Amino acid sequence: MARGHQKLQSQQKNAKKQTEMKKAKGHDQKTAAKAALVFTWLVCRTQMPDPKTFKQHFESKHPKSPLPPELEGVEA
């Protein structure tokens, strides 16, 4: 185990390495996935990434509700 000045230098070096790794990593998957959820269905407040998935959800979960106009031309 390192003691004194060597220990302090090792801690500083490790902290610098950790911050560089964090910067290089960029954004994480969670924030990227959240940004991809573009469509929001007002009935159940579900967010969908694309119109195809939105229409599939709509047809399976809300069959009695009328089809929204933005989903009329989309193929599921």
Automatic annotation (TrEMBL):
InterPro entries per the UniProt record, alphabetical: MBS1/2-like, SERF-like_N, ZNF706/At2g23090_sf
Signal peptide extent: none
GO molecular function, one term: zinc ion binding
Keyword rRNA processing among record annotations: no
Biased composition (Basic and acidic residues): 17-31, 53-62
Principal location listed in the UniProt entry: cytoplasm
Keyword Metal-binding attached: yes
Name of the protein this chain belongs to: Zinc finger protein 706
Biological source species: Dissostichus mawsoni (Antarctic cod)
